[in-house]
Write a structure and sequence with these properties.
With 277 residues, chain A is mainly α. Helices cover 73% and strands 0% of the residues of chain A. Chain A is globular, with a radius of gyration of 23 Å. In chain B, strand 1 and strand 2 form a beta hairpin. A two-stranded antiparallel ribbon of chain B has the order 1-2. Classes of the chains: A mainly alpha (277), B mainly alpha (298). Chains A and B meet through helix 1, helix 4, helix 5, helix 6 and helix 11 of A and helix 1, helix 3, helix 4, helix 5 and helix 6 of B.
Chain lengths: 277, 298
């Protein structure tokens, strides 16, 4: 009885999984079709005339005359640079707020940072654009990287972790003559590797996947990120070139899905940890 | 222990880089946005006349252009919130319960599969579904045709445009809520259910009398985060329906950005953005108070 019931549940779960996977499978399948076949309305999961032309042209920059390779490089560089900055400055700030009690205005800053978590993005979007515009930084890498460094999520996450770090270890190091920088770099950071990985995955995926800000913060084709580029193609004149579009989305999805699957466990842990608080 | 000025300065150096980012890219934009909203600020001109609260007054004066696009957009956004939030909760919980009921060996696999679309960018998600929903060549209509049914104008007619927006939102984001629910379900003590079984409770009773009350805090957390996320709806209607048919799915955020970047009136667009942000903050505070208030009663 129980075994029968379990079996039915697995069948049900598999049916549900089809809903989640089918669009992705169809995306990959379509990316190997020419535009004619992609628009034929036939439901062949295996292309009749499979072709890698969409990918080859895409990586050569010949696909729709847009530099997809450059877009991917932009997205990866911006994501990696932003993530590195966030990990460094957030961990330093969190260490100071959690452990350095002589920090001036410690409580004020903590409350301010936590309160800022409630601020919706719409409040800062337009003035941020005007700010970068005034600084002449629209259409540059700083415009794509820096806005993501202001979020307090990482400070908050690491603050919680550092606060619960045992005092004795830190005391012992101090007696041995270690200064604040050494305690930060040699004791607290190594203890925080797993949570830093989590924060890194979150941050990278956030920057890589965002398309609205890069859409407005870039003006020339070679500065676009892949997600902004795809949004432009989808609203532009290539709306129905599904074979080409799907090659593009497949390429765009690859890095982030790899990061997601590798980091899934810590991702899940971080979501549940912050949710319960 | 008294600490020297030097020591306090060193401590401050640790916060300085983040503090600078926080001030330059969060605090300053908020203040600057408020300043812009008090001016007749056009994107392409260099002269910005101070107009006081005129932009805000216009938003709240019925019949004006600003008031029209603000409240029409707001109503569309509110409709999206009303349609999506209950489903985001119910479907999220259902998937969590399904995953938890599976044999341990396949549980992780299905959890990952349901969560996978969450890793996609909004623009990738939207382009995939543009193709799936395509009236002539789309996967869904091809399938309907094969079954001898008529195609459906998924993105170009109501109520289908709404159905499509809600469905893609669920497909894309439901994994997040599911993960949180799975965790909450796992934290309900097993002996509660055992005790209930001994008392002869059936599954429905266990669900309503044990599961639901135990996960209520998490449920309210998800209600708040889903409401905020749905209030910020932009990508799906911007890329899938383009606000159509007509203006039926033109949400508030589309109108705010159009006012700024198409009509080039950043001043009034900022006023709209600020009113919208205040609304979101108010709603989250209200829901938060509600949660804490109820917790106090129990």
């Amino acid at each position: 009885m129980v075994r029968m019931r379990k079996l039915w549940l697995v069948v049900l779960a598999a049916a549900v999984a089809v809903i989640f996977l089918l669009p992705l499978v169809w995306m990959i399948s379509t990316s190997f079709k020419n535009d004619f076949e992609a628009l034929s309305g036939q439901m062949n999961f295996f292309p009749l005339k499979p072709t890698v032309a969409n990918f080859v042209q895409g990586l050569n920059g010949e696909l729709m005359n847009v530099p997809i390779t450059r877009w991917i490089i932009n997205s990866l560089s911006v994501g990696i640079a932003g993530t590195a900055i966030v990990l460094i400055i957030d961990s330093m700030a969190a260490y100071a707020i959690a452990r350095l009690h002589d920090l001036p205005l410690r409580r004020v800053m903590l409350s301010l940072f936590i309160a800022s978590l409630m601020i919706p993005g719409v409040l800062t979007f337009l003035p941020m654009y005007m700010e970068f515009n005034a600084l002449g930084l629209i259409n540059t890498y700083p415009a794509l990287i820096l806005p993501a460094t202001a979020g307090a999520f990482g400070v908050f996450l690491l603050y919680q972790f550092f606060s619960s770090f045992p005092k004795e270890i830190e005391e012992a190091a101090r007696i041995d003559g270690a200064n604040k920088w050494q305690i930060y770099a040699r004791i607290l950071l190594p203890s925080a590797v797993s949570i830093m990985v989590t924060l890194g995955i979150f941050t990278f995926m956030g920057i890589y996947n965002d398309f609205v800000w890069p859409l407005y913060a870039t003006t020339s084709p070679e500065m676009r990120t892949i997600t902004a580029g795809i949004a432009m193609m989808a609203t532009g004149s290539y709306t129905q070139s599904y074979g080409k579009l799907m090659a593009m989305t497949t390429i765009a999805t690859l890095p982030v899905v790899i990061v997601f699957i590798i980091g899934q466990r810590s991702f899940v842990k971080a979501i549940t940890q912050t949710a319960v608080k | 222990m008294k600490s020297s000025v030097m020591s306090r300065f060193t401590s401050f150096l640790f916060v300085l880089p983040y503090l600078a980012a926080f001030c330059i890219f969060l605090l300053f934009p908020i203040l600057y946005g408020a300043y812009i909203s008090l001016h007749n600020f056009e994107l392409l001109s260099t002269e910005h006349k101070f107009v006081g609260l005129a932009n805000y007054i216009e938003i709240f004066t019925p019949g004006t252009y600003l008031s029209d696009i603000f409240f029409r957009g707001l109503w569309v956004t509110v409709q999206f919130v009303i349609y999506s939030v209950p489903l985001l909760i119910v479907v999220g919980l259902s998937l969590a319960m399904l995953v938890n009921a599976l044999p341990g060996k396949v549980r992780g696999l299905f959890r990952t599969l349901y969560f996978l679309p969450y890793a996609l960018s909004a623009s990738v998600m939207a382009v995939i579904w543009l193709m799936m929903f395509d009236t002539n060549a789309g996967f869904l209509n091809s399938m309907l045709l094969r079954l001898g049914l008529n195609g459906i104008p998924w993105l170009t007619d109501t109520p289908w445009a709404w159905v499509s927006l809600i469905f893609t939102t669920l497909w894309w984001t439901i994994g997040f809520n599911m993960i949180i629910f799975i965790n909450a379900l796992n934290e309900v003590p097993e002996d509660y259910y055992e005790a209930a079984s001994i008392d002869g409770a059936n599954s429905w009773h266990k669900f309503t009398k044990i599961t639901l009350p135990s996960i209520r805090p998490v449920m309210l957390f998800i209600m708040i985060t889903s409401t905020i996320a749905s209030f910020n709806i932009y990508a799906q209607p911007y890329l899938l329906t383009r606000g159509g048919p007509g203006d039926t799915t033109k949400v508030l955020l589309i109108n705010v950005l159009d006012q700024a970047f198409i009509r080039k009136e950043i001043g009034s667009a900022s006023a709209m953005a600020i009113v919208m942000a205040l609304l979101i903050i108010l709603i989250s505070i209200a829901q938060f108070k509600l949660t804490n208030g109820r917790k106090g009663d129990a």
